[in-house]
From TrEMBL, chain B:
One of its GO terms (molecular function) is amine transmembrane transporter activity. It is found in: Cell membrane. InterPro entries: MetI-like (IPR000515), MetI-like_sf (IPR035906). SUPFAM superfamilies: MetI-like. It is a multi-pass membrane protein. Residues 148-327, 466-645 form the ABC transmembrane type-1 domain. GO terms for biological process: choline transport; glycine betaine transport. Pfam families: BPD_transp_1. This is Glycine/betaine ABC transporter permease. Belongs to the binding-protein-dependent transport system permease family. PANTHER family: GLYCINE BETAINE/PROLINE BETAINE TRANSPORT SYSTEM PERMEASE PROTEIN PROW, GLYCINE BETAINE_PROLINE BETAINE TRANSPORT SYSTEM PERMEASE PROTEIN PROW. It comes from Pseudaestuariivita atlantica. The chain crosses the membrane at residues 21-41, 106-123, 153-174, 186-206, 212-233, 267-290, 348-371, 447-463, 469-492, 513-541, 580-607, 628-649.
Amino acid sequence: MRGADFDPRKIKMSDTPVISARNVWKLFGAKPEAYLASMPAGHSYEQIREDGYIAGVKDVSIEVARGEMLVIMGLSGSGKSTLVRCFSRLHDITGGTIEIDGQDIGAFNEKELIDLRRSKMGMVFQSFGLLPHRTVLENVAFPLEMRGQDRHDRRDRALEVIRLVGLEGREEYYPRELSGGQQQRVGIARSLAIEPDIWFLDEPFSALDPLIRREMQDEFLRLQDMLGKTIVFITHDFDEALRLADRIAIMKDGAVEQCDTPDRIVLNPATEYVRKFTEEIDKARVVHAGVLVQEGLTGEGEPVAASDTIQSLARRLVNDASDAIPVKMADGAIKAMPRAEALGVLLGDGA
Amino acid sequence: MTDAVAHPPPSEPRAGLSTRARVLIGLFGAAVILTLLRPFLPDALIRVPEWAIPPLEPALDAIFAWFQNDLGLIHVTRAISGWLGVAIDAAANLLYGKSRWPRLDALPWSAVAGVAAVLGWWLGGWKLSLLAGGTFVWTALMGQWKWTMETMSVIVIAAPVSFVIGLILGISAWKWKRFERAIRPILAILQTLPFYTYLLPAVIFFKVGPTAASVATIVYAMPPMILMTAVGLKKVPPEVVEAGKMAGCTRWQMLTRVFIPSARSEILVGLNQVIMLSLAMVVLTAFIGMPGLGAKLLAMMNSFKLGRSFEIGITIVLLAITLDRLSKAWVVKQPEHFEKGTPWWQRHFFLVLGIATFVFFLLVAQVVPYLDEIGRRQAFSMGKEIDTAMKTALAWDWVQATTNGIRYFFNLFILIPTENALLYVPTFAVIAAVAGICYALGGAQPAIIGAVFFTTVAFFGWWDRAMLTLHSTVTAVLLAVLIGMPIAIWASRSARASRGAIFVCDTAQTFPSFIYLLPAIMLFGISPITVILSILIYTMVPVIRYTIEGLRGVPVELTEAADMAGATRWQKLKNVQLPLAMPTIAVGLNQALMFAFFMVIIAAFIGTRDIGQELQRTLAGTHLGKNFVLGFSVVFMALTFDIAINAWAERRRRALGLA
Ligand SMILES: Nc1ncnc2c1ncn2[C@@H]1O[C@H](COP(=O)(O)OP(=O)(O)O)[C@@H](O)[C@H]1O
Ligand SMILES: [Mg+2]
C-alpha cells in the first residue's frame, strides 16, 4: 500500500502546491454567477436544488502537493468529475479560484489555456475518449500533433509511450479492434505523450472487468513509481482508493467531506457520512503502525516498521503482553504505539 | 343538478355528451346539412365566387419581378449560374463530350464502368463491384450512355455543392444556437415542400437548362444534409470532446480533427440522402426541359413506347440502387489496420487498381472503338421487340378482358361516382368535414389549422381542381391501405418475410418517383385509373414498411400474454398488436399521403383535370405567381393531413406510454 510510503511532512510546506483550489463553486443552471452572488451563505445542496441549480462543486478548498497522488472518492453524482474538470478548466468555475503552479487559471485567455494543457496536463477518461478514425499511433500522437511537433519526433515519442504501456505491435490498430483494457492503455499513453506534470484520471478503470482492473492498477502503480507525477485520481471504489492513494478526498453533494490520509480517514472520520462510508472497511488493512504512535511511550522488544499494517502485525499484537510496542519511524527514530489501541483497530471496535 | 356528488363534475356537459362529441356532431352535421341544402343555396355559398378571390397571382408575379429586377437578384443569380454553368459544362464535356471547356473527348464508357466497379469493390466487396460496374455496362450496351451521362453530369456537380453548403450550414447551426433557431422553421418548410415548388423558381431565376436543374437539385437535396450534420456533431461523446480539449486543440483543430471525423457516420448518411434526392430531382427536372434519363422516359411514356420506357426504367432503378448502396457502404466502412511493413501499393491497393483500370481502358479504347462509345446501331437495345411483346401480351383476350374489366369497374363504380360526389359538395361543407376529421384525429389545434388551410385553398381559386387532386390521392391511399395492410400483416408473422419485405420496400423507396408510373401505364395505358394505380403502387411502399415495423415492434411479452390468455390469432391482432403498432403505422400512412400528393402532380402529364395538370402547364411558362398558388394549394392540403395524423400518432403514443 502506498499510504505507508507517504509522509505528509516530507512535503515542504514552502513549496507552492501544484494545484490549489480555494472556495471553488461550480453551479449548473440558468444564471449561476448571478445566483451565487445573491445566494445566502450556508445554503444547503437541497436548497440550491430547489432554486433550480445543481451544485456540481460546492465550496471546495483543497491543495495537491507535487508528486502526491490525491484520490477523489464519492458516490456517483457527488461531483468528482466536475471538480477535476474545474482543475483543468474544462469547466469554468462559478466562484472561487484555482491556481496551477501558483497561476490563477481562471484569468488565462484561450491561448494560455491551450498552452497549459499542451505542456502540463494529461487526462484519462472513463470511457476512454479515443478518436475512432485514428490508429493507436495516431491517437497517442494526437496531442503532439496539435502542438505542432514534427512528424518524426511525434512518431518516436508516441512509439515510446506505446511501449511504456505495453501496446507494442498494436500501433496500427484502430480503437474498435482493441479490448477495453487495451483501449484504456491507449488513453493512458495519449495522456502521457506530452510528459505532463499533472495527471488527471477520471475513473479510468471503472469500465473494465475486475480482473483486468486489478492488472491495470498494478500497471498504473508501476508507471507512477517510474514517473512520479502529481496525480488526481477519481474512483468510486474504496479498495482502489486504498491501493493507490496518498490522500483521499471524500465528496458528497459537491462538497469535500474530508480530505486526509487513508489511515486518518478510517480512524477519525470527520463526519457521520464518512464514518458510514468507511464502516465496511477492514481497518486493520488500512491503518499503519506509524499512525498509532503516541509521544512519551516506550515499548519493549523488536521494533516494527511504521509502514506495517496492523493486520500484518496481528500475531505480534495478540501474543505480546506489553502495553506498548516499539515502532521504527521512517526517519529512523524509535517510538511506540499502545497495544490496546492497535488491538482495537484489529478487532474492529474503533480506535 | 341537485346532487353534486352523484353527478359528474360540472365541466361535463349535461346531456351526457362530451365536448368532443358535440364538436364532431356540429362539424359533420354542418357538412351534411350544407350538402343536403345545396339545391337551395345561392351560388356564392356553394363555391367561393370569382369576385371574392384575391388577385394573388398577379400580385406574386409583381413581387417576384421586384425581387428579380429592382432588388438586383438577377445579378446574383447570373453570377451563380455563370460558375455553376462552367462546372456543369466541364462535367458534361468529360462525361458525354459536350463541346465545352476543357474540350477533351468524352471518357470511354468502359473506363467509367471500370472505375465504378473498383469503387464498388473497395466499398462493399465483389457484389457491390458487380452492381456498380454492371449498371454502367448495361447503360452502355443499351445505348443509353449519353442520356445517363446527361443526368450524371448534373448530379456530379449538384450533389457535391449541396453537400458542402449543407455541411457548412449544418456546422453553423450546431455552432450558433441563434442561427439554428432561425433556420429550423425554414428547413421544416423546405422539407414539406414537394419537388414542383422548386422547379419554376429555378427556371425563372436561372433560365431553362442544366443550371436551373442543378440549382433546384442543390436546394432540394440540402435540408437533410444540414440536419444530419448538426445531429452528428451534437452526438460526439463528451469525453471525446474533452480529450480533444485536453490535447490542447485550438477551435479550428477541434472542428476539423475531432468533431467532423467523429460525426463521420451522420455526415455520410447526409451525403447518401443528398445523392438520392439529387437523383430523384434530376429525373424530375425533365419537366423543365432538362435532357437526360428523365426527359427520355417522359418522352417514351408519352408516345407509349413501352419497350424503351421499360429499358430506361431499369437504368434509372439500377442507377438509384447503385448510388444508394455505394454511399451506404461508405457509411459503414470502417478502417482496417495493416500489418507492419506492408508496402505502400498494398496499403493503397484500391487507389492503385482504380487508376490502373482507368488508364487501361483509356488506352484500350483508343484501339477498340467499341469500348469507347457504343453507337445506336451497335447497342443491344431490344426496345422494339419488348414493345411488340408487351403490346401483344396486353392484347391477349384474357389480359385485355381483365384490364378492361378493372378499368370499367373502377371508373364506373368507384372513381366517377365519388369524384362527382366530391365535386357536388359545397366548399364550406368540405371545409367543415375536413375540420371534423382533423378534430377527431388530433383535437382542436389541427382542426383549426385544417380549416384555415382549406379555406385558403378555397380562396386561391382552384377549388374544383384541388378537389380532383384530393380525390385521387385519398382514393389511392385508401386502396393502398386495403391492399398493403393485409400483405404487411401476413409478412410480419415471420421474421424472414418481414426482413425481406422491408428490404424490398427500402430499395423501392430509393427509386425516383417517376418509375412508379411505368407499370401503371403498361397495364392501363393513358387513363384516370393509371394515375390512381401509380399512386397506389408508390404509396403501398410506406404503408407496408411501417405496418411491418409497427407489428414487429410489439413487445414479445405482450403477445405472449395474449397467447396465454387464450386469444385467437385474430383477437391477438385486433386487441394487442394493431393498437400498439398504430402510432408507427400512422407514420407510414402519413408518409403515404405525402407521397401521394407528390405523385399526383407527376402523374398529371398523363392527362388529368386536376391541379397537377395546370401546374405542369405553368412550368412551361413564366407564371411564377400561378405556379405558387397552385403549388401551395397542394401543399396546404398535404400539410393538413400531416399535422392531423402526427397529432393523432402523438396522442396514441402518449396514451400507450411510448412517448
Ligand atoms: N454539464 C452539466 N449540466 C448540468 N448538470 C451537470 C453537468 N455535469 C454534471 N452535472 C451534475 O452535477 C452533479 C455531479 O456530476 P459529476 O461530477 O459527473 O458526478 P460524479 O463524477 O461524482 O459521478 C450531478 O448531479 C450531475 O447531474
Ligand atoms: Mg464521474
